[in-house]
Every structure is written in C-alpha cells, then in structure tokens.
Amino acid sequence: MTYLGTELRPVFRQVVANIDRVLIGKQREVQMVLVAVLCQGHILIEDVPGVGKTTLVRALARSLGCQFRRIQFTPDLLPSDITGVSIWNPATGQFEFRPGPIMSQIVLADEINRTSPKTQAALLEAMEERQVTVDGVTYPLPRPFLVMATQNPIEYEGTFPLPEAQLDRFLLRLRLGYPSREEERRILRQAGENLLLDLEPVMTPEELVAAQGEVAQVQVEASVEDYLLHLISRTREHRDVYLGASPRAAIALYRAAQALAYLRGRDYVLPDDVKEMAPLVLGHRILLRPEARLRGLTPADLLASILQEVPVPTGVRSHSRSS
User: Fold this and answer.
1) Closest CA to 52 of 27, 15, 74
2) Is residue 318 part of a domain?
3) Which of 17, 44, 120, 294 qualifies as a FRET site for 147, CA 20 to 30 Å off?
C-alpha cells in the first residue's frame, strides 16, 4: 500500500511536502490528518511528549492559511476560558462578547485530559455543532473548523480520562511514533532552525472549504456500503466486545473513506479505503469486556481480526475522474 506523495491530488501533495519540511518522516500521518480536515472531523493525537504533535498542528495551520489558536489545558481552566465571556461595558450600557480561543479555524487542545470534565464538556457543542453558546446567545464558529487534541498515554497522574461521549466526537485517533534513525539524523541536522516560521500557505481556507464540499459527492457503491456495515456489525456482535461501534462511528467511517478516496484523486470509494481508515476511526470507540482486557486483547487487535474475517467485495469500478 502506498502512502507517499505521487498518488495525491497535486495541492494536497504540496501540503504534505510543506509539512514534511518541519515534521520529518510523517507523510502517512499527515495524510490521515488531511482526511479528517476534508470530512470536517476532529483528531485526537495520543503520543508521548516530544514527537512533534504541536509542530504538526502549527505546520498544518500555516500550510492551509488558517487561523490558529492553542489552548493549554490545565486543572484550573474554566469553560469560559475556552468559549469566551460576556463583559459589561459601562460606556455602552451593554454586555459585549469577548470570544475565547475556540473561535478560530484550527484549534490545538493541548493535553486535553489535564482539565476537569466540566471544562472538557465545553468543547462538545463546538465540535459537534460548530457553534458556542454563551449566556444564551449562540455564536457560529468560522469555517473551516478543526480541533486537534493531544494527550500523553503514559502519564496519568493528575489527569481526567476522556469519557466515551467526548472520545466519540473525534473522527480519528492517531499516534505519530518515533522517527527512524535516518529521519532523526535529519531532525538533528536542522535542530535550531525555526523552519516553521518560513512555511508559506499552499492553499487558502476558501479552497479547503470548496474541497470539503466535493468530498460529499464521492460515490460509495452498495457493495462497499455492505462491507462497511458488516465491519460495524461485527464490532457489536463479537464476544469480546462490551460496547461496539455506534451509528455515529459508521457515519464517521463512511465520511473518512470518502475523504481518503478524494485525497487520492478518485470520485468513488474502494473497499481498501474503508479497510485503511477502520482502525483509526473505530479503535477509540470500542470498549472491550474486562475478561478480554485481562487476556491482553486491545481494540487494535480486535479490529485486525475482524478485518481479516470479513470478506472484501470484488468488482468495484476502477476508473476515476481527472484531478
């Protein structure tokens, strides 16, 4: 399976190449981020400190020409610190809304699990409905809008695990992982250079919004739909599963497959698109039974087994429109 450059639509090939200047060796992960961006989903990056999570988000925002804000989640963070607050203006005799950092196009929710559930919940309306409500007044969020949240999977002291309802708002969960030796050699050689400041946009927010609209037109044949639904139903029926993939998870997988097909220059979805996106879309939405966890089974293991069991449809058309 090919993950790098040449098969992508030209503008997104440029985005990947642009980000690769500062985040070396993570082309596949950048492609998956672009999948989420194209189908207007949000991303949870779960990895150890120092692998480039913040760099990825900043480079993405610069490459897409989008407004960027960072929210550092801490135990004392309040919901109003995210959404904004209404302040009384004595000169006008009226309350004026002071928008919070969520009112941006690309928002980094750094170490999201370090704040209280009440503050975590402040993100729910924004992520699901693209709006925030403060003092009974609803304010729409800009387009495009993307939340990329990070958390450390190792250090749990002083953290608040994300509840299932919050996890379900994230289209994908990604891990960046460590670079290879040669990739790390490149990183060492450019250490100290602030290449992020030199990144120029390679597309505009307006072009991105137009591409998001085109993704919804990508066709999914009935046989591919059946394959997707078979995968979803297996997660619910499996004896090791306590909570399987929800209808929202099925929609997320459907949209992600459409976005991956579009990213790679097709106007139709292949079964391989569904197969490639399934672990990233479904892994954080499945709860295993306690006895399965005691055996060392993980959602990733379960999904790998299901993907091997479910037969892949054949005969899906193999022509695409020009890109």
Assistant:
1) 27
2) no
3) 17
SS3 annotation, 232-247: HHHHHHCCCEEECCCH
Task: Pinpoint the alpha helices (H) of the chain.
Answer: 10-20, 27-38, 53-64, 79-83, 117-120, 122-129, 164-167, 181-189, 205-215, 222-237, 247-263, 271-282, 290-294, 299-309
> Would the pTM count as exceeding 0.85?
yes
Domain count, the chain: 2
- Which residues form the domain of 111? 5-208
Report the candidate in 252, 245, 253, 235 with the shortest Cα–Cα distance to residue 292.
235
Q: What values do phi and psi take at 247, rounded to 5?
A: -55, -35
Q: What is the CATH number of the domain that holds 27?
A: 3.40.50.300
Check whether residue 225 and residue 192 sit in a common domain. no
CB of 16 within 8 A of CB of 35? Answer: no
Same domain, 263 and 197: no
- In the chain, the amino acid numbered 94 is Q
Give 114-130 pLDDT, tens digit per residue: 888 888 888 888 898 89
User: Are 174 and 43 within 8 A, CB to CB?
Assistant: yes
Model confidence over 281-321: pLDDT tens digits? 999 999 999 999 999 999 999 999 999 999 998 876 654 44
3-state DSSP assignment of residue 208? helix
What is the rounded distance in angstroms from the CA atom of residue 274 to the CA atom of residue 120?
A: 30
Inside any domain, residue 150 = yes
